[in-house]
Task: structure prediction
Amino acid sequence: MCDNPSMKLLALLSLLFFFEELSADITDQRVNFNDVLELEVGDPDAVVRYGDVEQLFGELWLPNQPSRGLVVFVHGGCWLNHFDVRHSRPLAHALSEKGFTVWSLEYRRLGDPGGGFPGTFEDIDLATSSLHKLSEHGVDADLITIAGHSAGGHLALWAAARFPDRFTGVVGLAAITDLEAYAAGDSPCEQAAVTLMGGAPNQQSLRYQAHSPGRMKIHPNTQLVQGKQDTIVPAFQTEALALDPERIKFTKGGHFDVIHPDTSDFGVMLRAIGDSFQ
Result:
């Protein structure tokens, strides 16, 4: 840490400028981040820890009917600790009302001690190998879909490709599938991918190859849901996985419509979640 007051001020101003740019990106959508965050839902039924570090827990949402299956959800937010699990609550609550059990994960992100490479990936691995902990709450984890939004979609697709036997299916919502192409962009979220991986693709080529879903043998039951008006994760990101067209569901909205329960895009997401258990 630099003790020079001028350097400290410069670092603070750089951080503020970064978040101003990022805030402009996430609010310039048909449905924006704040629209999701302002939705009022109750508290989860339980909080289930999967590790000893503060961030290693998941919020458990239980349906009021026989469960249609367990959805392990990974929230997005550019891999940054500026965005936490709270903004996944409207989606998790809505899924539970449709009969799904939902375990919505928190994990270490950029800005957390140990966040980034490899800690962020290690946390998703640890969480998805700890599903037996849910049995204490009566959860049957035989049918399991992992799903994620945006950066969380990247992590969900990575986990399903890396550990396919753990999951019945995987659904990427506005998911980053080509990490190398994304890191080549100049938006704050795209540049967060460089920070996540500890360098640009030409500096950390092996890391990108092993952690970009487009470079991996993907889970055989992979689906994507992508908004045509998304400017944060553009539609061309769906091309990296070379999926059959019927496994890609395009919607009319932007980046956040798909996780907002009051949109038509959310209905498309629900169908994809249901299909992932078949």
Residues 5-20 have pLDDT under 50 and may be disordered. Strands lie at 46-49, 57-61, 70-74, 101-105, 144-149, 169-173, 222-227, 248-251.
